[in-house]
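Example record

The entry below shows one chain as it appears in the dataset: sequence first, then structure tokens.
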Amino acid sequence: MLEIMHLESINIGRIETITHKDQSFTTGIRKVSVAAGAYLDETGVRGDAVVDVNHHGGADQAVYAYSADDYDWWERETGCAHGPGVFGENLTIRGFPSDMNVGDRLLIGEVVLEATAPRIPCKTLAASMRDSGFGLAFREAERPGIYFRVLNGGEVTTGDVVTYVATDSCDVSILELFRFNFALQHDINDLHRYLDAPVAIRFRQKIESRLEAMGRRSD
């Protein structure tokens, strides 16, 4: 399956400290649109700040993309308009679906991106939105955006055509992994199926940890 989309915005973050209530966070989550193009490689978008390297960035979560159409949904639901980069995404894409399968690819010129994991809401996102309840709202919306690894690097420019190429070798969806993250019970066959997919290493470790815990409970 091929679907054509467009790159609406390229967003880059700078290191800053944000404060919400009694907590402060040093972060690069607040990203702003750049007029010029940007170079993507296996480490992510050149010039973009990644502060919390334990939970963000790395080869398996090098680029975070969010749908411009999902921003439209948030505006309809909340009455608040959000500009590109508010959720911390590097690429804001018009026509980008809320769900894909792990292993699906995006082609932007010579750049090839492979879907690896959903974004999980965190305290930093809630602080950035000035809303302690935003994590729950983000979870319930099930429009998490998608992390990608960069299989082939190159320059991207606002307005570029983005081609979505679905995989035929994996049936693990991004939303399935998103729901897995919050679930209290799991099917062992599903967990093994997730591990057969090219999921990001942090999610792989979560899955393996839950499999190990299920094994201990069955002893």
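Notes for this example: DSSP finds six helices and 13 strands in the chain. The mean pLDDT is 93.
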